[in-house]
Structures are given as structure tokens and as C-alpha cells.
Amino acid sequence: MNENFDDLKARLQKADPADSSFVLNEGLVAQAPLAKPARAPISSRLRLGLLSGGSIAAVSALALVAGLATPQQPLIQMANAPAGRAESLAASDAAAPGMKMIAPVWIEYDYDSTELSDETGRGSVYQLVLEGDVKERLQQLADYFGIEGEIREEEWSSKEYPTFSIGKPERQVSVTWAGTGNFYFNAWDPASYKCENKTVTLEDGTSYESCEPIATPELIPSEEKIRSEAFDLFETFGLGVAKDRIRVDRSDWGASAIASVQVDGQDTALEWWVNYDGAGKLSNVSGHFAKPQARGEFDTISAKEAATRIKDGRWFGSPSSSVWNQYSQNMRTADAVSLPAVEPAPEESTKDAPATSEEQVEIKPQQVTLKLTGSESTLLMIYDKSGGAWLVPGYILKNDQGWFDAIISLVEGVIELPEPYAVEPLPETKQG
């Protein structure tokens, strides 16, 4: 009897999943809570405990082998995303309104990461999860803002992004039950600004009447009142935030208040805000019903290694607006600061070439090296292929031109990246 027991004990120990010789894929383990549990009938033999010791060991060993044989799958299948800040400068900033475009600019950046740390670490991943009934949440919003009417599904609503509303366009609430579960209240009144009738005379002598807006700063609530009202509204619909963490921006023409969902003591890109119009009335509110749920800790790469991901273009995530605000002025002037003066190449003689009205000129990239001066760990928001939102560990990689790149720091394998893509400028058309 004792020999049989000792043999059974030894066989069970060999089949122990906690044995350090076995390492399960972290992504696979983190996915387990996401799967719907399968219900299978329990046999009477199992309920009565009639399995022999040998059968128990065999079942344990078989279950372990089956778990190890399961293909290692990424936790997140990342959605396609636009290129990162550095790679899109020429495409976005050069075409910004008010900027004179002398010639198309194609910039290829290199990165000097010698000053960055090579220390690796661990970081938590959070999935933004929606719970409850979308129509119940929508009705709660309508009751709070005093909006009456029937719930309707918007014409642009889809199975992947169901969107419902109550009210009329000039005053309504809506919820999109996908991703972050964004909700929106709108009561914008274009006539909220006072205006003064003026006659405008043109150079040719003709004139027209115009009503020019007049600022009424006395109607805008105080910063303290805005912060208190935003705090109460945020708390009512599920955002727990300290009042002093709500950022208020007040001017003569209106006001706003914004607060970030905090995770692990950090601001995230998941943000709530309220707006006040020129008459001091609440005009817009936006928030999110999705809640962050931890999906496990994972290894992270160093800041120095993360720098090698910038040129790839697929490892970018969205930081909080508090990060953007630190660099906003430098981001607007990044082109002027970082681009060296380039002497134009001499024009080639085309005496023997036939005259044409248009000629395509090959654009060659300018090579610019950015020195990365420091890094800061943060949580970045990304979206998966199904429209779901996640918060993942990353770095803010600062450069010597005063701006940054936000790069995901998870080791490879946790995220399945989209297919790589190349962004190249169209050839310049030279008029003949």
C-alpha cells in the first residue's frame, strides 16, 4: 500500500506544472481569462473519486503536455497605425495651413541612442473592457443632461462599432460601444457668442455687413467652479480622479477642463473633458465607459533597444495629453529646428532635350541624425484589429530638438504587428 502511494506521489511530482523546468508563454497565460470557459459534463467516476492513482498521474501529465503543445499566440493583434512622428513630419507639418512650402522635403532620420539606458524590466498590460448595457448607460446620460426622446441607432453604426443616441443634433447624447466606450454630450449653440454689427468696406469700394464676435469673459465660470463641476460630472459616470488633477484652461472666449484616467499613478491617453462656450454654458462633454483590467506583467526592452524601433514605424502608441503639452511648442517648430540648410543643386542643362510643360524631378531624402537625450517610462494606448483598446508599457524617447517619439517597450511576441509598409513622397512636378 505504502509503495503504491509513494509511486503515485513521485509520478504526481513529475507532472507538477509548477516545476521550474517548464516555462509557459506569458501571452498564452494572459489570454486565458479572455476565453469563454467551456462547460463539460463531469463524469460520475470523477465525482465519486474512483480514478486510480495511475490514471490521475496520466491525466495530469497529459494535461500538462497539451498545455505545452498549444501554439504560442500573441496577446494583442495590433491594428494598422500611421507612421510615427519623425517619419511623418514632411507629410504633415510641411502641409500645415499658413506654412509656405518652398519645395517638398523628404527626411530620413537616424538616431544616436548612446546616452540611453540599456536596462530591461517588466511592465503591466491593461485591456480596456466594456461592461453593462449600452442602452442603459445612454439613458443614464440622457437623464443627467435632461434630454428626452427615444433611443436610436445612428446611420453610421455598425456591428463592430455600434453607436446609439438620444435627442436632436443641437442637444443630444451618444455612446459608441466599442474600443474605449466613448460617450459624448453636445449642446453647442453657434449663437452663444455676442457680436457687433459692422460695415466692412473693400478696396473696390463695395461693402457688406458683418457681425463680429465680442468676448464676454464675465460670463465664463471661474476656474474653481469649472473644476468642481467637472469633478462632479466625472465622478457621476465613473472617473475617479483627484480634483487637483483636473486641468482647466480658461480664456475670454470659453473654457475647458480635462482629466486623464490614471493607471499605476500615471496619466494615460484615456481622457475625459468638458467645454464651456462663450456664454459660459456647458457645451460639450466626452468620456469613456471602458475600464482598465490588468492582463499580466511582461518583459520589456531597454530604452536603447526601443530606439531601434522608431524607424520601423509600427511600434508607436499614444501618450497622454500631459506629455504632448510638455513638448507642444517644440513639436510645432520641429522642422525649422532640425533641418539643416541645404544648398540647392545646380540645374542640369537640357538644351538637347525636348521641351515639356511638366517634368518630374526625383526627390532625394535628407539625412538627419537626432541625438536621443533621455527616456521616460509611461503607458501608451494602442488599438487591436477588432477595435479594442489597450494600455501597454512604453517609453517617451526625448531628442535634442525638443520633441519625442512614443515607443512600445514590450518584448517581441506579446504583440502581433501589422504588415510593414513604406511611406515615400510623390515625385515633385516641375512646371516647364
The main sheet orders its strands as 4-5-6-7-13-12-11-10
The stretches of 5 or more residues where confidence is low (pLDDT under 50) are 8-71, 82-103, 332-351
| Global shape | globular
Which percent bin holds the helix content?
10-25%
Which class of secondary structure composition applies to the elements?
Answer: alpha+beta
For the record, give the distance between the C-alpha atoms at the N and C termini, rounded to a whole number.
Answer: 101 Å
Largest sheet: 8 strands, antiparallel
CA radius of gyration: 29 Å
Strand content: 25-35%
Mean pLDDT, nearest integer?
78
Written as H for each helix and E for each strand, in order along the chain, the element string is HHHHEHEEHEEEEEEHEEEEEHHHEEEEEE
Number of strands: 20
Short description:
Helix content is 22%, strand content 32%.
Structure in words:
With 432 residues, the protein is α+β, with helices and mostly antiparallel strands. 22% of the residues lie in helices and 32% in strands. The protein contains 10 helices and 20 strands. The chain has helices at residues 2-14, 26-31, 44-47, 53-69, 85-92, 134-145, 223-236, 303-306, 321-332, 334-338, and strands spanning 76-77, 107-112, 121-129, 152-153, 163-168, 171-176, 182-186, 194-201, 207-214, 247-251, 254-263, 266-276, 282-288, 291-300, 358-361, 366-383, 389-399, 404-408, 415-416, 428-431. Strands 4-5-6-7-13-12-11-10 form an 8-stranded antiparallel β-sheet, with helices on one face. Strands 2, 3, 14, 16, 17 and 18 form a 6-stranded mixed β-sheet that branches. Strands 1-19 form a two-stranded parallel ribbon. A hairpin with a 5-residue loop joins strand 6 (171-176) and strand 7 (182-186). The termini are far apart.
